[in-house]
Specification:
Helix 2 crosses helix 5. The protein folds into three domains: 177 residues, Alpha-D-Glucose-1,6-Bisphosphate, subunit A, domain 3 (Alpha-D-Glucose-1,6-Bisphosphate, Chain A, domain 3, 3-Layer(aba) Sandwich), CATH 3.40.120; 225 residues, 3-Layer(aba) Sandwich (Alpha-D-Glucose-1,6-Bisphosphate, Chain A, domain 3); 134 residues, TATA-Binding Protein, CATH 3.30.310.50. The chain has 19 helices and 26 strands. Bound molecules: 1,6-di-O-phosphono-alpha-D-glucopyranose. The site of 1,6-di-O-phosphono-alpha-D-glucopyranose (G16) has 15 residues, from loops.
Length: 546
């Protein structure tokens, strides 16, 4: 039977404003009748005429991925898009999608994921939109989508669709050519161009080096198996939790100590791995572990930059770097040493895009377990793991030795993030508003023995295109250059999440190895006092400290 385009009338929703990284909501909200369709219609309308164009689609495989992908194919066909490239079984990691959009000259990419958030009917779901440069859509586009979504009176789709997502190759859907593709090979080839695979194989294949990658039952499993076990000949079984599951095996696909528990525990065993790593739901975050320490994300990007000569794809060409504002200033110290600029941007990978597109930077990273380069326009978890391995292969050091050598050379920017989750919205916003109003009075005050030097609110002007972003976090800097940053998360799905980032530079040898908590002591207490957190939120302690 031939498909027909139909118009479906529907009332608009008023809560479809994308946050830090696309539209992220509870799955129950996304699975309401017409909810996803109306959002996709707003996206399609914002993209304009799609005739003759290619769109790439994928997802991290979480619950609701398949129906969402079928809905997207139907609606893109109704919008007369010429070609859709969709990941086999509906799977594609965020960085692989970014690479594919660029490699195939696609017009846009749609990815269904809520990143490291839990999946399932009680969990979260989300939609990321990438434009033709492979980067997350900038705020002017997402804001236009939001405004348009509130005015929609319906959407256009096909009355039926019969696409077999398990069958590689081309199928015709109405007048759209739908190609089911396997993104793993292209991704692995891209990595081979950036890193020394012969050196990596020697390291990973050596009997003295035990290696483990935990794919967290999420999207990176097939990529990790192909790269580490097939191409680099790590012993079979080195990649664990390698099959993407709808419910992530009952875990949050979050590579921190709370959910990658088995990996963290294995690292502490006598016969445990020398090198451990994990990624998140959609494969853009990373964690790297040595036998006796987990690398802090802010340190990770600094160490990758400091050792760029080790990786063939980066040697001699790092002309600039960038970090998000709340990320520790460890990267700044490296940039100073290299004699290259270090840009500071608001939280959200999209803010790195113009710097990457214009060639001002080659590497960038964030405190939220993200690092990447100009190879893609998204952060890239497996890329970061390969980069680490390449450095270890060249420098012949353990993770712990490399990190400590780095601290001795550059100082240690001890860092902690404190999250207050699920706060009542009015209280959290009033707290930020009140703090904002008191910034001038705070300067010069002494709190918990800390002398406050400056207090301001961070605004960004993009040095390439001049676009601005206001109210991107409140910064308090002490007389001894320690820093407290406050901002409300843009990725939560219920209430507000307050993030407080604290950082202190430590140089003394003996102290370098102390716990981050000990090194930043005093800052969390001062942060709570300055912002009057208990009064506004009813909370006496953060829910998560990382
Ligand atoms: C996204 C963004 C990151 C950001 C993170 C947390 O990552 O791409 O730039 O740091 O969210 O944002 P927030 O602090 O606003 O919650 P992901 O991996 O969740 O897509």
């Amino acid at each position: 039977m031939i498909e027909r385009v139909i118009s479906v009338p529907a009332q608009p929703f008023h809560d479809q404003r994308p946050g830090t990284s696309g539209l992220r909501k509870r799955t129950a909200i996304f699975s309401q009748p017409h909810y996803l369709e109306l959002y996709l219609q707003a996206v399609i309308d914002a993209l304009g005429n799609l005739r003759g164009k290619t769109v790439v689609i994928g997802g991290d495989g979480r619950y609701h991925n398949r129906p969402a992908i079928e809905t997207a194919i139907r609606m893109l066909s109704a919008a007369e898009v010429s070609r859709v490239l969709v990941g086999r079984d509906g799977l594609m990691s965020t960085p692989a999608l970014s690479l594919m959009v660029r490699a195939k000259n696609a017009y846009a990419g749609l990815l269904f994921t809520a990143s490291h958030n839990p999946g399932g009917p009680q969990g979260d779901f989300g939609v990321k939109l990438n434009l033709g440069n492979g980067a997350p859509a900038p705020e002017r586009v997402t804001e236009a989508i939001f405004q348009h979504s509130r005015r929609l009176t319906g959407y256009r789709t096909l009355d039926r669709v019969a696409i077999d997502l398990a069958k590689p190759g081309a199928q015709l859907c109405f007048e759209t050519l739908v190609e089911v593709v396997d993104p793993v090979t292209d991704y692995a080839r891209a990595m081979e161009k950036l890193f020394d695979f012969a050196a990596l194989e020697k390291l990973i294949g050596s009997r003295d080096f035990r290696f483990r990658f935990d794919a967290m039952n999420a999207v990176t499993g097939p990529y990790a198996r192909e790269i580490f076990e097939n191409r680099l000949r790590a012993p079979v079984g080195s990649v664990v939790n390698a099959v993407p599951l709808e419910d992530f095996g009952g875990l949050h696909p979050d590579p921190g100590p709370s959910y990658a528990k088995d990996l963290f525990a294995a690292m502490a065993e006598d016969t445990g791995p020398d090198f451990g790593a994990a990624s998140d739901g959609d494969g853009d975050r990373h964690v790297v572990l040595g036998r006796d320490l987990a690398v802090a994300p802010s340190d990770s990007i600094a160490i990758l930059a400091a050792n760029h000569q080790a990786a063939p794809g980066y040697a001699k060409r790092v002309n600039g770097v960038a970090r998000s504002m709340p990320t520790s200033r460890a990267l700044d110290a490296v940039a100073k040493h290299l004699g290259v600029p270090c840009y500071e941007t608001p939280t959200g990978w999209k803010y790195f895009t113009s710097l990457l597109d214009s060639g001002r930077i080659v590497l960038c990273g964030e405190e939220s377990a993200g690092a990447g380069s100009d190879h893609a326009r998204e952060k890239d978890g497996l890329w970061a793991v390969l980069y680490w391995l390449n450095i270890l292969a060249v420098r012949r050091m353990s993770v712990g030795a490399l990190v400590r050598t780095h601290w001795r050379a550059f100082g240690r920017h001890a860092f902690q993030r404190l999250d207050y989750v699920g706060l009542e919205e009015d209280g959290a916003r009033a707290m930020m508003q009140d703090l904002r109003a008191r910034l001038r009075d705070i300067e010069g005050r002494r709190v918990h023995g800390l002398l406050i030097d400056t207090a301001d609110e961070y605004s960004y002007v993009d040095p390439v295109d001049g676009t601005t972003a206001d109210r991107q976090g409140i910064r308090i800097v002490t007389a001894d250059h320690a820093r407290i940053v406050y901002r409300l998360s843009g990725t939560g799905t219920s209430g507000e999440t307050l993030r407080i980032y604290v950082e202190r530079l430590v140089r003394e040898g003996d102290m370098l190895d102390a716990s981050a908590g000990r090194l930043v002591a005093g800052l969390p207490g001062a942060a709570a006092l300055l912002a009057d957190i208990p009064r506004y939120t009813g909370r006496s302690a953060p829910d998560v400290v990382s």
